[in-house]
Each structure stands twice: as structure tokens, then as C-alpha cells.
Design a protein that fits this description.
alpha/beta, Rossmann fold, seven-stranded mixed β-sheet, 12 helices, globular, binds magnesium ion, binds zinc ion
């Protein structure tokens, strides 16, 4: 584990690093939950034409905002209860999530959920973990029209190189100045790509691991949040060792 941390290239030893306050930005779909809830919902209700939109989004031919908006627009708003029930009952929380939250609390590490997912499943699935609502960023939904319309309360700021994130992780991350914060991102896929470029450390799985390798970003692969906690503990120890004269 130690060698993998050091090989990953993230800064562990200077006292300046240790002085910065750690803050975690954690993705939801495919990260806190084992699967991508958006894809699971769309696949379950299977409206005509969704596969191409999904593929175009994953391959970045369509923006996330455009792709997710278009996929939900294929579903009639009358399916509201079924869509909500399905998304909540289908999701599985990844092992170790509570342990990570406990660790953050004990170590005074601020923890934010930065999700490209939708309010109607993100909030209910997180309700038992007691994360303050102002620490959860996600998209909203409107069932008042003919079809499901996704609403974007946390769109990109002018500095976002992407401009069409939907829920803009880089805008959230930039509120925590790089010189005062040790910015840690946990994620799995396309909604995390831009944020990963800003982070001091990335915990990655799946497509995000591939992207980090491609861009040479400091990252540690994880399977469960137990892995993340173990790695954070180890990093903290290395930082403390680095502070000693
Ligand atoms: Mg994800
Ligand atoms: Zn953005």
C-alpha cells in the first residue's frame, strides 16, 4: 500500500501540504452507489433511442447536461412514482461508506457529495447517513410537464473549461482555495473528469482510472470505501512523519 501511494505521485511529505485542510468531494452514481442510477433507470424503462444518447454522453460527443436531459425527456412524467420507487429500491450503497463518513467526522475532514445524479434518488438514498443537505450537490427534477425535465441548479461558472457539466464539480471545488485546502476527489466516470484535473488526489475506479492514467493525474484506485479510509490514514501518517524535523 505504501509503495502504491508513493508511486501514485501525490504529495505526502511537506509540512505545507499537511497544513492545508483536507476536503473531500465524492461522486454519487457508481461511487457511493455500486451502479449508475441514471443508466439503471433509463435501462429499466427502456424508452426508444436512449442507448445512442448514453453512448454519445459516455464518449463525450454530447455534454453530460445534454445527454442526461435528453434521456430523461424520453420518459413521461406520469411515470414519476414508478421511476422514483425503482431508483431507490434498485440502488446498493458501496461497502465502507459509513466508515468513510465516521473517519471524516473523527478527523474533521469536510465531506461533500458532488453528484451528477438527480434529487429524487440522491437525497432519499443518503438520508440515513446524516450528511447535511448543504453538503450534497446534485441536479433537480420537474415532473409537472408531459415528460421528465431535469433542472440544473448548480451549473458551470465562467471558469469551468467544460461549460456543460450539468452539476459543475469544478465550480464547487474552486470555492476551496488550492493553497488552503487539500482537495480530494472520489469518483468513477465522466462526471468526474474535469474535477479530477483540479484535485490534489483522486480516488478512482472504472473510467476515471483510465482517464487519470491518460492524463498522468495522481490517483489511487479503490474498490470499497474501506480502501479509501486505509489510504487516507496512511497518507496522514506519511504527512505527520514529514512534519517531524
Ligand atoms: Mg459516477
Ligand atoms: Zn462545469
Amino acid at each position: 500500500m505504501t509503495s502504491s501511494l508513493i508511486e501514485s505521485g501525490f504529495p505526502v511529505s511537506s509540512s505545507a501540504e499537511a497544513a492545508r485542510r483536507p476536503v473531500i468531494f465524492c461522486d454519487f452514481d457508481g461511487t457511493i452507489t455500486e451502479n449508475d442510477n441514471i443508466i439503471a433507470i433509463i435501462r429499466r424503462f427502456n424508452p426508444e433511442g436512449w442507448e445512442q444518447i448514453a453512448q454519445d454522453t459516455i464518449d463525450q460527443r454530447k455534454s453530460i447536461k445534454q445527454g442526461v436531459g435528453e434521456m430523461f425527456r424520453l420518459l413521461p412524467a406520469a411515470l414519476k412514482d414508478e421511476v422514483i420507487d425503482y431508483s431507490i429500491s434498485n440502488a446498493v450503497i458501496r461497502a465502507g461508506f459509513q466508515e468513510l463518513l465516521d473517519y471524516c467526522k473523527a478527523e474533521n475532514i469536510e465531506f461533500f457529495v458532488t453528484s451528477g445524479g438527480i434529487d429524487f434518488f440522491v437525497y432519499p438514498l443518503l438520508s440515513r447517513f446524516g450528511i447535511p443537505e448543504d453538503h450534497i450537490y446534485c441536479n433537480s427534477s420537474d415532473f409537472s410537464g408531459e415528460n421528465i425535465e431535469i433542472v440544473w441548479p448548480h451549473s458551470c461558472d465562467e471558469e469551468c473549461p467544460n461549460g456543460q457539466c450539468g452539476m459543475c464539480k469544478t465550480a464547487v471545488i474552486r470555492r476551496f482555495a488550492a493553497d488552503k485546502h487539500d482537495r480530494i476527489l472520489i469518483g468513477d466516470s465522466v462526471t468526474d473528469f474535469e474535477g479530477a484535473k483540479l484535485a490534489d488526489l483522486v480516488f478512482s475506479r472504472s473510467h476515471l482510472t483510465t482517464k487519470c492514467r491518460e492524463l498522468g493525474l495522481p490517483h489511487v484506485e479503490f474498490t470499497t470505501f474501506h480502501d479509501v479510509v486505509a489510504s487516507l490514514k496512511e497518507r496522514q501518517q506519511l504527512q505527520k512523519a514529514g512534519e517531524r524535523p
